[in-house]
Amino acid sequence: MDDDTQLWGGAGLIVLGALVLFAPLVLDLAYTTVLLSAAVLVLAAGALLVGLSRRGRAV
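The chain above was modelled as a monomer; its predicted structure follows.
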């Protein structure tokens, strides 16, 4: 993967994870534990992709 794909793919996963994280609060969905677990995994994958891209690194 090139840097742009990693950066924007990771940012997209972070946005998706945030939406899934707050979905049980807004929509009163069942399976809250499963949704929260999935959201944490998606957020971690997004953070990993952003961290691996050269543009997402602080140094």
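The chain has a mean pLDDT of 82.
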